[in-house]
Amino acid sequence: MSAPELGVSFSEKVTLIDGHHSPQPAVPVDYSRMSLKESCASSVVLAEVIPEPEPVSTLTRLTYSCGVLVERTHDTVILAISMTFFNQVLGLSGSLSSLAVTLALLIDAVCDPAVGVLSDPSRSPIGRRHPFMYAALGPLVASFGLLFNPSSELSKQALFWWITVFMVLLRCSVSLYSVPFMALGAELSSNSLERNRIMGSQAAVGYFCAPLVLFVGLTWLLADPGDKGNGLLNRSNYPPFVLLCGLVMLVGGLTAAAFTHPLIQRLPQAEHTIGGLRQFARDLLTALRNRNFACVVFAYVFFSLNLGVGETLTMLVGIFFWRLSPGEIAWFTAMVPIAAVVTPPLIVTLAKRFEKRTLVIAAALNYCVWPVFGVVLRLAGVIPNEHPLPNEYLVLLYFLYMLGNCALVAHNVLVMVMLADVAEEHETVTGQRTAGIFYSARTLIGKSASALGHIIGGVGLDYIGFTPHMRLVGAPPNIVRRLGFLSLVGSVGGLFAAVCYAFYRIDRARQAEISTQLAKLRET
Length: 524
Prior knowledge:
The chain is 70% helix and 1% strand. By secondary structure, the chain is mainly α. It has a two-stranded antiparallel sheet with strand order 1-2. α3 (68-89) crosses α10 (291-321), α13 runs antiparallel to α17 and α14 (391-430) runs parallel beside α18 (508-523). The protein starts with 9 loop residues before the first strand and ends with a helix.
């Protein structure tokens, strides 16, 4: 493994979704840097190249996959309810609430590659991955519990620092577990077929079980409105829900670590040290000189900004703009696994007729439109301002949300494939296979840009006069209307992302040229 490839990477034959095949040995794919959507997308990107797989038992595959619940439960819950809890339940301003989340995201963006740098060369009697996984679980569960249980006697300034400190500890603990966990998945087998099965099982557990946790919380534990008008605004509902999430993360994390513990002796061990964060920074700057990589990076910045704004405002829009109950909001989570199942085959079909650039532009534009299209219809008077919302319009909102998630999954799959193209082009220039730097950079830049989106959303709440502890019944209609308009702001980022993707220049012809160059280079 070359210096900048943080975590475990391995060479696979890459089958691009437009039907073009790259010669072997191919660009290494770094699973330790992938998010769960990207892991799911790997089944679209990678071909099966070794005919006789090393057997990995079904029990090992399933128990290992439980570890994904650490990251997925954290992300699903934190992104869904954090702003509502901090702003409306605890009473912290939108600006300070988003600032706490932003600081945690920025530190976490650096923490990811740092954990990779630490775990790759480490040695211990229990391997190089398990020590980090075991060490992360205690601080993770503790910081998660404390984050949602500050004292009611704290001042606003003290409350801000409470949230910031435990958000940072929580996100760093998740990285401390998840980066070695993802690397461990690649180490369980040296065969691409088995790795695809492992990653497929992991993605299935993440996509179905983590939304199920939130679904149970919204329909049961967070359902009692009390005197607040909505269960998500009732602080007394949160302790049992936080306990459930903590138990899921703890049991999932321990299950993966404990059931793979007997395999430690046959897992690859560290053989050398790597360049560290300084080398990572140097390689990142070198990679940015590649025009196509720069296009993808700038597009991903704008797209992630869109995501950050949406993560900040979506739940508040559901509660105050649409006046939905927790039970009604819960069914939006069911759209996520549906999109994850439907989208990859659709991408493969469309890619036979269209270039990846065309498809990723379409995905970015669709994600600009569908998640907020219902808000546009309400603001335009097409959807009536009625409470409760008539069932036909509620079903329409669910459908639009599913379309938005389909666009999101498609975008993430296509970006991973485009990065594989860029990595091959980079190899023709430098002679080095450093795909890990491209995937790591995507994570680093994506989290940093998402942090900016959170700031925009939080400051926007204060700007429109959306105050902490806003009354649900009798909320000023002009403020609620402004909240709807504010939720549209993130879509501008998606539009700029589409413009940036238009400058991406690796099409089928260029990819064929790159493959020919690589074949000649590798022969020598």
